[in-house]
Amino acid sequence: MAESDTSGVAGLRAKREARVRRQPPPTRHPRPTSHADEATAGEEPTPRLAAASSESLTPDTVGAAETRREATTAERDTPQGTRPAAPKKAAAKPVARDTQQVDIAPNVMVVSPTVLSIEGSLMRRFERARKTAPSHTAIVLDALRACKDDLSTLVREARPAGASGDLFPWRRAPGQSRTTRPEQLRIRPTVGELGVIDGLVHDVNAELNSQQPGVRRASRSEVVAAALNLYLP
Q1: Helix or strand run (H / E) with residue 172
Q2: Concatenated DSSP letters for 45-108?
Q3: pLDDT of 79 strictly over 60
Q4: What angle do CA 129, 134, 138 make, to 5 degrees?
Q5: Mean pLDDT (the chain, rounded)
Q6: pLDDT tens across 195-223, in order?
Q7: Calpha distance 102→105 (Å, rounded)
Q8: Given pLDDT bands bounded at 50, 70 and 90, which one contains residue 137?
């Protein structure tokens, strides 16, 4: 009885060892072996990360991989039916234009009310011309346009000449008064127009002083009155 039990256990062990050593049957249609398979038949498989060369793992490739991973995570976290907001584009820089710079004062068109002192007799002529003119300022500016080249001569001629043989012929005699009292003429030129008028007055004084050094300076009212005296009918 003992011998049959021993033979029975040995037979089970022999069958188990035969199953372990058993090889699978050959395939009926074997795949043809290529040169690459023969070259790598004896090599051990390597992980993909180990197969990559050190040159491919640059900061740019690592950054690109992280960007793709973040984009995938954002798409997974975004609810269905919606899209992640597109990144804002940088504001476009203004294009430099090649234009001619014009030096214009910022207040050149601001009105600057001005009061002039004009002889009464000349004011009567001015009032008659005003009936057909658009404004006081228009008459004054038109008179200066018409007489701009002769203003210094007109101012000099409008001044009273000394009496013949007078010891002091360069100005009126003391106590001598005007024929009529001066009156106020109100005009409303712009800052730019008033600057042009003052420039004309400066030119008149420069020419008068070159002809007679030390002569009395002409005022804005005197220059305008000389132009009006010639311009008005």
Answers
A1: none
A2: P--HHHHS-TTT--HHHHHHHHHHHHHHHHHHHSPTT--PPPPPPPPPPPPPP--------TTT
A3: no
A4: 80
A5: 75
A6: 999 999 999 999 999 998 988 999 999 99
A7: 10
A8: very high
Tokens describing residue 84: 């992640």
Say what the pLDDT of residue 99 is: 41
Q: Residue 208 and residue 221: Cα distance in Å, rounded?
A: 16
Token representation of residue 188:
């409303």
Q: Per this entry, what is the length of the chain?
A: 233
Q: What is d(CA 151, CA 157) in angstroms, rounded to the nearest whole number?
A: 10
- pLDDT band with cut points at 50, 70 and 90 for residue 105: low
Residue 64 CB neighbour total at 10 angstroms: 11
pLDDT band at 107; cut points 50, 70, 90: confident
Phi and psi dihedrals of 189, rounded to 5?
Answer: -75, 160
Cα dihedral 209, 226, 193, 182 sign: positive
Q: How far is CA 120 from the centre of its chain?
A: 53
189 has pLDDT over 60: yes
Rounded distance between C-alpha atoms, residue 143 and residue 141, angstroms:
5
**Which amino acid, 107?**
N
Closest CA to 204 of 225, 233, 181: 225
CB atoms within 10 A of CB 222: 21
Q: How far, in Å, CA of 185 to CA of 117, rounded?
A: 6
